[in-house]
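$ fold --in a.seq
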Amino acid sequence: MPEKTVGFVGLGIMGLPMAKNLLEEGYSVVGHNRSEEPVEELVESGGENGESPAGVAEESDVVLMCLPDSPDVKRIALGDEDEDSPIIDGLSDGMVVIDHSTISPVVTKEIAGELEEQGVELLDAPISGGEEGAIEGTLSIMVGGNEGALDEHRDLLDVMGETVTHCGPSGAGQTAKAANQIVVAAQMVGVSEALVFASQAGADGESVVEAISGGAAGCWTLDNRAPNMIQGDFDPGFFAEYQYKDLRIATDAGEAFGAPMPQTELAHELYKSMIGNDMGRDDNSGIMQVIELLAGETARAEE
């Protein structure tokens, strides 16, 4: 049985199943979340309640985070007027913090610098694969930071992810995740356009998906989301509001680095429309609904 005690802060739609997978592999897990229900579920599965971010760190050998956005990670990791018990207060020299959140590479480097002053390593290790990947332990994990620290805790990441890739120094994991989200958004928008087009042309959506999935158009979205999209099922595996946030990170980074992003800027605006139409808690494949609004009709499979 593994001897590490793992702290997990952020037990949301991704974090809770990741923490449960660690429990199933025999790791001791101490958790904290802003709302109590996920913590109670973790405890029912054999974990412990750390009571606060600092409390989690005090009881752990390594701390994992999975939080919504850059301000959340900075507040929970380092503290501010709204968080008086941050992770940094419970850390000890030589520990490692692994951040599975998707945030700005600039903020990642800032947090890494402050933790380094306390003798603590930060690995930025954003994830891709949606809720299914988190549940099944098949996530893709992109890691930036000290490779030795990664090697020390790769056993944990191998429980949660099918692919674990060291991408470079601090911030490189977040850069890889931004690239991932650029491609994901392009797939979601492209598949949505194709399905609405097929519907307006009088073709059967299910047949179109079957026909094109095995050719050059084949992609993750066609395999894993298109069947639900043509049924109008947009239950979240990854919230559209998070996709919007991730595209904002990507476009801001593109501006900072001088990288042209014409397609990503368009996808960003389309996801903004989802937020404006109260669709932010739908799955990110729900972008199809915006294309349908533009078309003036829905594209659904016949009963």
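$ fold --in b.seq
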Amino acid sequence: MTISNYIKQLQSYEEYAFSWNELLSNCNKTETSLKRELSRLVEKKEIINLRKGFYLIIPPRYSKQKQLPIQLYINKLFKNLERDYYLGFYSAAKFLGASHQQVQRDYIMINTPSLSKIKKKSIDISFLTTSKWPEKNILKKKSDAGIFKISSPALTMVDLIHHQTKLGGLNRMLAILEELTEELTHNDITELLTWYSHKSTLQRFGFLLEKFQENESLNKQIMEHLKQSKFYPVLLSPKSGLKPRAIKNPWKVDVNIKLENDL
């Protein structure tokens, strides 16, 4: 079987990616001839070499963009890598209805160790890592190519807040955080509080929720959780070498930046 025929076979059941090992198993050809055919298909822009040994199929309807929506291949990519993942941060926010700004980069959370970012002409994927993998708060969504995983609204919000310095700062994400509060539920926060360990991020989360919404019961959930043990003053926007000042709010959050968004 040629690679072109194998690609047609994959597309017939809505698969948009394949690995080098799959080609070796399914195409009865030498490695040299397979590499030659792969090079031709890459040159014709029918496939993209996403990373070593992993290729994306670009069907005609996506040829103008020269890329595939990430939900069509992310699950297969991580199955191939034998790693866990979830689509998070601004990328998850988009699937949760908080697409206030168009972000060209895709953001994926993975367990340690880290992966190198993927940067092609039309593809930009950034990986962030955590050493404590979420026990809950990961949602399964359906695409044409099957199931893919994203963070829940609560996990998306704390991830954004926790990694704010790597993601353009708090003001860049304020509008998205405010939109995400509309998707929050008691159950989502309850699940988060059973395993999430970054107290300072929960303080910032509760403080911002109080600013964003009229429903105080969600804030109370977080405050009751924090009160179960000691918590200390934190900066709203972490700055190295800077310590929080005297705090006047119950969250013990020093508002050290001027909050500005366009909502």
